[in-house]
Amino acid sequence: MTDIKPFAMIAEFEDVGAIVKAAESVRDEGYLHWDVHSPMPIHGINVPMGLRPTILPWITLVHGIVGLLVGLLLVWWINAKTVTGVPTPFQGYEYLVSGKPLFSLPANIPILFELTVLFAAIGTLLGMLGLNKLPMLHNPLFQSDRFRRVTADRFFIVIEADDPKFEVDETQNFLNSLGASAVEVVTDD
After folding, report:
1. pTM (2 decimals)?
2. Angle of CA points 163, 169, 170, to nearest 5°
């Protein structure tokens, strides 16, 4: 019979104060692959967890700039002068509107704005999904009956087994020392 490899260890706490203190201790102990789960947002938990700010705003900015440049290229190409020797499908559509120049930036601001917002929104959505490792079709934590209370009234710290400091006995003793009401090993079977 083969040994079943643990996926993570969960520690259950009963209130916000206990989970915040426990998160500080886990951070100070040097664990790298762990998370806090709660039935409601805990404002400021990122500081006790030692989390860095997200790169999602930078992903949004880059995608917005790309959208602006694509829009600029699009309106320039569509309003470009016809060039001899270039096949018709690849020509621009030279059309004068109200005597304005062929490439008038103020006239095209709505197009540039819309493409900037579109690309930024799509980039934000895809970046958020990627950073959250979604879609995750299976998470072994959901096999734990105890962990199901995280959506109702309990708070959990989950230390993943792929953490460099993870050792079943030592991690269990450490989580018990934090005042956890229960500690459980979750396997991926």
Report:
1. 0.77
2. 60
- Per residue in 141-174, pLDDT (tens digit) is 999 999 999 999 999 999 999 999 999 999 999 9
Length of the chain (residues): 189
Burial of 151 (0-12, 13-18, 19+ CB in 10 A): exposed
Cβ contact 165:171 at 8 Å: yes
- Classify residue 19 by burial, with Cβ atoms within 10 Å: 0-12, 13-18, 19+: buried
> Which CATH number covers residue 159?
3.30.70
Question: Are 66 and 127 contained in the same domain?
Answer: yes
Domain that holds residue 179: 6-53+140-187
* Calpha distance 22→177 (Å, rounded): 9
Last residue of a domain, one of 131, 157, 177: 131
Residue of 54, 133, 136 lying closest to 46 (CA atoms): 54
